[in-house]
Amino acid sequence: MTEGLTMADGEQVHRTVHETEVAAPAGVVYGMIADAARWPLLFLPNVHVDRLEFDGANERLRMWATANGQVKSWTSRRVLDAAARRIEFRQEIPSAPLTAMSGTWIVEALGAERSKLTLLHAFSVAGDRAADAAWVERATDTNSRAELAGLAALAGQWARLDELVLSFEDSVRIDAPPQLVYAFLEDAGRWPDRLPHVSRLDLTEETAGVQVMSMDTLTADGAAHTTESVRVCFPDAARIVYKQTVTPVLMSAHTGAWTVAPGPAGTTIATSRHNVVLREEAVERVLGAGTDLAWARSYVREALGRNSTATLNHAKRYAESAAVL
């Protein structure tokens, strides 16, 4: 639901309301909303969240998310009230065309294992331009519906989340400076020429450090997978984070990070981290009759780990060769 209000100073404030019922206890739902760092695994539009400040109740976040096909970034402040199961938020410096954006998450118990989740937004746009207001309303509606649907689907499986969510990492020690390793990982546009398991990669970078890419990769059994991702690069921190916006069938969500750090005795430690939510209903369809979540966890761990470790080993050869030139 969307409505517009005119303030005394003539500024138009648009308000939206989205709500859904969730087959999970209110405490579980609130916990998922409160843990913003995990939002990219829960919510399709969210790419990455960095917590900048937190004192137990007041929080400051840097966020990246897609909106109407574009990648937007902003910094938000949140006030968390666990007792009331209510979280208020406000964007510090809104991303254009917004001039203000705020809202509230509200979780209400409907029983021991059922909840109502409400998401409120209030926003204004520069010059009250109708086209800009319509753009924001469309993005807010699309993202809010996707967020509530994603959370409801995953929270509805709250008793089995430990089986569905998988996180792991692999590291490689490299005898070369960190900047050479980071350069290889950041320059993904050249991966088809450098990585045997990457057969195609299309990359655009309209905003510096924000890469949108579509990639075809090969598994050990020769199967091809097409994925689409958004990557956010942090050269000063030698870190690249990413969110797959189109995933293989076996996964409902996949996020990750490449990190490069100084190691012992002048070496570099390059690490690949993966966070995955498995799609249980696809397990037998993809892996065959009789397979289960344990099998799927092992399969995904091996497949993703093999490809990312291969990428790190190619980065190692590249960096070590460049270091001696």
Automatic annotation (TrEMBL):
InterPro entries from the UniProt entry: Polyketide_cyclase/dehydratase (IPR019587), START-like_dom_sf (IPR023393)
Q: What start and end residues bound the annotated signal peptide?
A: none
Name it.
Aromatase/cyclase
Pfam families for the chain: Polyketide_cyc2
Query: What organism is this sequence from?
Result: Streptomyces yangpuensis
Keyword line: Plasmid
Cross-referenced CDD domains, in alphabetical order? Answer: OtcD1_ARO-CYC_like
Q: What is the lineage of its organism?
A: Bacteria, Bacillati, Actinomycetota, Actinomycetes, Kitasatosporales
